[in-house]
Design brief:
With 158 residues, the protein is α+β, with helices and mostly antiparallel strands. Helices cover 21% and strands 39% of the residues.
Length: 158
Amino acid sequence: MDVLTGSISTYVFTMLHGQPRFLVLLRAPGLIHANTWQAVHGMIDEGEKAYDAAWRETVEETGLGPERFFKTDYIEVFYSEFTDAVHLVPAFAAFVTGAPGVTLSEEHTAYEWCSLDDACERFEFPSQRNAIQTIAVATQGWPAVSAGLSEITGMFQT
């Protein structure tokens, strides 16, 4: 069994009435984890930095350009039976204003803007729930953020 790196997750959020709302994406039929609610997830291209991949995948999968971008202190760790490997996936957070419409990629068939509790109910994997809980705690003093998020807006290439 291998340990794999090379992918990222990005949790897109907005703030409504002082509370975070998370974008959840329904995975398309015929793909791994079809018909499950997901965050933005994708592969890091050769020579690409993880935060650049996170920004790129966010734009590709949602059509949204984040206003603020953060690395989280959370690393998703899970075993996949599809790869027979343990995956280590850095989690990022992307802030957008309001709850804008999303332009879905072919990887997804629907989207919703959800409260923390609703997103936690929809996400199948504990690592996804843990990531958004980290973001929710860190944004309690929004627009300031606390431990758990570090702003990296401007570090990536667009």
